[in-house]
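stuck on whats below:

***
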Amino acid sequence: MALLHMLKAISDSFGFHLVVAHLNHCLRPEADHEEAEVRKLAESWSFPFESGSVDIRHLKKARGISEEEAGRLARYDLFFAAARKHNAAKIALGHHLDDQAETVLLNILRGTGVDGLAGILPSYKRGGVTLVRPLLCLRRHEIEAYCRNHNLYPFTDSSNLETDYTRNKLRLELIPRLEKEYNPRIREALYGLAALAFEDRRFLHALARKKYLALAGVGRREIFFKRKELSTLPASLSSRILRMAHKRFAPSRELDRFHIKQICDLAKSNKTTGQITLPGNVNLYLTQEHLILAGGLNNKVEAPFQKYLKVPGKTLLPGGSLVEARVVNKEDLHWPPSKYQAYLDYERIPAGNLKIRTRWPGARFQPQGSPGWKKLKDFFIDQKIPRYRRDHLPLVTAGDEIVWVVGLRIAQPYRVTGDTRRVLVLSFKKMRMPG
C-alpha cells in the first residue's frame, strides 16, 4: 500500500504509468476479500488492475517445492505476465529493510557465499524487465508510520504470525533474541553487510561476464567450454561462469555449491567422458577437451525415429527439420557438396528403400575413403562426436546399410564415380519453427 501510494504521488512528475498486480494465494479465508479491496482501491485511483488465483498448496505438491517457493514463483509469473501485457519496463516490489535482514540471516544459516550475503537485490533485469525495490532502505515500522500518516489501511497476512514457516520463526524468535542479547541494531548491521556484499557481487559478476564471453562457445542448445581454460580460473570466477551458462537454459533454477564442486571435480579429473544432471532439465557432458552444457537436442531429431524418404520430394522430420531429395545429371552438380548435402550414385540405391532414422545396436558403416567397414560407434569416436549426441544424429539408410551419416560422411559404396550417370542429391535442412 505504501509503495503504491508513493509511486502514485511521483508518477506525474516522472512521467510513468502504473498497473496494479495482485495474486490470490488461496491459502487464507480472507484472501478473496483482500483481492476485492485491492481491486477497489486500484479502480478508485484509475489504475489498471491485473489479478490471478493460484492454489499454492496444489502447486507445492505438483512441483515438489516448499509453500513459500511456490508462492514466490506464482507471484512472479503473474507480475511478468502483467508486465508483458501492458508493455511495462519495470516491476516495483515492496521488500523492505527487515525483509533484507531476514533474507541475509536465513542465507547464512543455510550456508552461502557472497551472492547470498547480498540478499535481496535493489534492482536487476530479467526477461527484458527491470525489477526495482524502492523501499529496501526503510524499516517496517517506518513504512507502517507512513501508512498511518496518509490514512492507508494495509492488510495483515495472518500467516506471518505463525511459526510454521522458517522465515517467520526467524522473524518472530531469532532476530528479537539477537537484538536483545547481542546487537540491538542487528537488522541494520545485516542490511549493511548486504550492501557491501552487493558491491563485491557486482564487481565479480562483471569480471565473470567478461570471461564468459571470451571462453564460451554458444550454440542454440549447447554451451561449450574448454575444460583446461575453465579449470585454471579462480573458483570465484569459474563458479559464476558456470551459473551464467546454466541460467541460459534454466533461468528460474540455481546451481548450488555442491553442483559447482561436482562439475569442477569432473573437469579436473583424468576422465575423458562423463555426465551430470543439473537442475532445470540441463545436462553437463565431459569430453576429452570440453565441458558442454546442453538444454536440449542440438539437431532437433528425436530418438528413436525412422521414416521413409520421398525420392524425389521433401520429407518432414520430427522437430521441424526436413530432407529434400532430387535426382540430377552428374554434369549439373556443383562441387563440393556442403556439409549437409550428400551426392550419391542414384543407380546403386535400391528404389523406394531409403529411410532416415537414428542409430541402432550393432550398426556398421563404410565411410567414404575407408577400405573397410567399421562400427558406427567407432566412427563417432573417431569423429569426436560426444556420446550424448550420437543417439540423435540422423542416418540415411538403404535397408540396414548406412548410406549417409548426416553432416559427417557418405558411404564408400554409394559415392559418385566416373561411371555414375545420375546423382541423388540429398539436402538436410534445419527449419526455424514458429515461436
The two ends are 38 Å apart (CA to CA). The chain has three domains: 2-193, 216-294, 306-429. Confidence is low (pLDDT under 50) at residues 297-301. Residues 2-193 form a domain with the Rossmann fold fold (CATH 3.40.50.620).
